[in-house]
Amino acid sequence: MNEPATHTIVVMGTIVTIQTASSDPKHSRQQDSAIERALAWFHHIEERCTRFNPQSEAMRLSNQSGVSLPVSPVLYEAVGFALEVAKASDGAFDPTLGLAMERLGFDREYSTGQTVHTDIEPTSAVSYRDVLLDPIRKTITLLRPLVLDLGAVAKGLAVDMAARELREFESFAINAGGDLYLGGCNPKGEPWTIGIRHPRHEDALIDSVVLSNRAVCTSGDYERTADDGKVHHILDPRTNAPEKSAASVTVIAQSTMLADALATAAFVLGPERGIPLLDRMGVDGLIVTPSLDRYETRGMSRDYRPGASPVL
Ligand code: FAD
Ligand code: MG
After folding, report:
1. Number of other residues whose CB lies within 10 A of the CB of residue 149
2. 44 vs 222: which has the higher pLDDT
3. H helix or E strand, kind and range, residue 269
4. 217-253: pLDDT as tens digits
């Protein structure tokens, strides 16, 4: 295996890194163009799905509630998937929290530094039930004035699209701010070993997993905060306040979008309802509570701990 090459961009308010084993020089042009296409997905999806740009497709929906608008395939996919997770989690996951997030102070566009102020007054409490999809016409209708927040799915979708561009390579890793997809084996030819950050000690790991051709995503209360660090970014949609029953949740799945969204959903549900959700959805995961108790699905230690045979 050749030496790894790393490519990094800043997008979606985070750092995205793609690592590939650098190929035979005669294939390097092919590899460069695959990496370019992979990175371009992040910009393509951001442009359409962000709530931080009033001109984005997602925000155009907000400005025309009650109207059925045809949307791009990526926005349709991200919203459709978010609604499925919302139903599966009985509303613990909810992609209509945009205004609540903005009002808590999650309102700064990362590349310009400018704050966004959406001029929409919700008529009453909104939820995922206020979003209607037409699968034939590929339209989305917001039944009430609301702002979509796709922060827990759009990054995962972009990682999956990027992974599709890179699948011809034996070895690649994509890391989008804690949402990872690991293709094939690491540059040493072994399955990837991924450390899971300790939620209360920045420089320590609480666990590690070994995997190949899988996504691993972590949602943590330490990752993003507003109001000088007092308010974290994962909300209970019933109260619009930060949820306190977990400190971090790590999910392993075949698709990054699924792992991304289910980590957020299980965070809101806490261990008692979160582990059964992960089981029902056929994925594995670990929930660490604020008192550092650990809860996990059966498959975590069976399939993903060092020494276990990774599921290929
Ligand atoms: P995850 O746990 O995967 O997701 C948590 C995020 O999901 C929250 O930040 C919130 O956005 C949303 N959320 C909170 N509670 C719930 C819930 N109950 N159900 C469903 N979703 C919930 N950040 C900036 O500060 N500025 C930007 O300009 C910016 N642009 C972005 C553009 C795009 C397209 C995307 C995808 C993200 C952008 N972000 C930006 C980051 C974004 O706001 C989220 O903070 C980030 O995506 C969280 O990812 P995570 O994996 O850390 O957390
Ligand atoms: Mg995530």
Report:
1. 25
2. 44
3. helix 256-280
4. 999 988 887 866 777 889 999 988 888 899 999 999 9
Q: What is the pTM of this model?
A: 0.96
Ligand 1 binding site (Cβ under 6 Å of any ligand atom) = 12-13, 46, 49-50, 52, 93-95, 97, 101, 108-110, 149-152, 154-155, 177-179, 219, 223-224, 233-235, 237, 260, 263-264, 268
State percent of the chain over pLDDT 70.
Answer: 96
Find where tokens 């310009």 sit.
112
- Residue minimizing CA distance to atom 11 of ligand 1: 151
Nearest bound ligand to the CA of residue 150: 1
CATH number at residue 228: 3.10.520.10
Average pLDDT along the chain: 93
In which band, very low, low, confident or very high, does the pLDDT at 24 lie, cut at 50, 70 and 90? low
Which one-letter DSSP state was computed for residue 130? Answer: G
* More confident site: 11 or 1: 11
Report which protein residue has its CA nearest ligand 1's atom 23: 13
Chain center to CA of 257: 6
- Judgement on whether residues 261 and 240 belong to the same structural domain of the protein: yes
Tell which one of 234, 243, 258 to mutate to probe ligand 1, the residue whose CB is within 8 A of the most ligand atoms: 234
Same domain (yes/no): 80, 96: yes
Determine the structural domain holding residue 236 and report its residue range.
Answer: 191-312
45: helix, strand or coil: helix
Give yes or no: residues 8 and 35 share one domain: yes
For 270, phi then psi, to 5°, come to: 75, 175
